[in-house]
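Retro notes, item 3 of 5
We never archived the inputs for the nicotinamide-adenine-dinucleotide complex last cycle. Fixing that now. Sequence and ligand:
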Amino acid sequence: MAKEPVRVLVTGAAGQIGYALVPMIARGVMLGADQPVILHMLDIPPAAEALNGVKMELVDAAFPLLKGVVATTDVVEACTGVNVAVMVGGFPRKEGMERKDVMSKNVSIYKSQAFALEQHAAPNCKVLVVANPANTNALILKEFAPSIPAKNITCLTRLDHNRALGQISEKLNVQVSDVKNVIIWGNHSSSQYPDVNHATVMTPSGEKPVRKLVKDDAWLNGEFITTVQQRGAAIIKARKLSSALSAASAACDHIRDWVLGTPEGTWVSMGVYSDGSYNAPAGVIYSFPVTCKNGEWTIVQGLAIDEFSRKKLDLTGQELTEEKELAYSCLS
Ligand code: NAD
Ligand code: LMR
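Structure as it came back at the time:
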């Protein structure tokens, strides 16, 4: 029997991530090849014509799984009945800007959209915030939508996770699909800590620790970390636009694993409401290693944290605490 369609909201759908993301969702990349979807696309009035153009292209693409498209500039219409909300709408960082610079523009959007989601989304709607500052926008959304369970509100650090897998795969000249269990700790910003201490590579003679295979701690503790931390800025410099296809693909990975589960023995990185695990600050959205089962994420517990890592976990946690204060000062 055919499944009931799932309603997926994409805000900022006329933007460049939106343009890469909506065809992926309509093809089943996010929710599975047997899962029909109805796309809800929201943008602001100046982008209404472009949004309608995206809708026309979705119709023209004749995606078999796509059972309907709502394209609107009305936030209530956009949020009504949605089961998954991917929040991409906002102002992207331009060359030379830090994420803090886009804070005041974006947190007020997330405050107002929190109300609409809380009142009109389907019960148990899963929310993924992509727009920067992603962790703090997600926190604001959570704070102003108190009836949505905190565990349903997450932010995207899967792009950073995938970037870390990509760097290790290039360094070792192995398939990226054979590398697993890197971790992104903390903020989706240049303070994030990409950690390979528990990462492994599948080799013909079994699973081996990344550190043993790379045999270059100076690279792993230096250039590897800064490359992943600065990758967003490097893409902006090269494209004069921020990452889009990789961000859209990571958003699909994030929701797919959350809804359908992570493979046995594998974890992924997600920005989730911190309970203080690993002595991260509680009450911010912090990226942790998580496993997912039956539509719920769980923070992987008990991983050893050495002194080098401890400092980096604390540094990015400190930045998130400061961003939280700054966000509230922008809203007052
Ligand atoms: P973009 O400017 O191309 O698109 C953003 C869209 O949002 C535009 O169409 C704009 O009209 C729309 N928008 C603005 N205010 C809105 C509102 N109130 N409601 C609905 N839509 C609104 O930007 P982009 O390149 O698609 O990037 C989107 C966001 O994602 C940016 O904040 C960017 O920094 C962020 N980003 C995050 C990650 C991540 O890994 N977390 C990666 C890449 C980009
Ligand atoms: C990215 O990581 O590519 C985005 O968050 C863009 C940025 O501002 O760095």
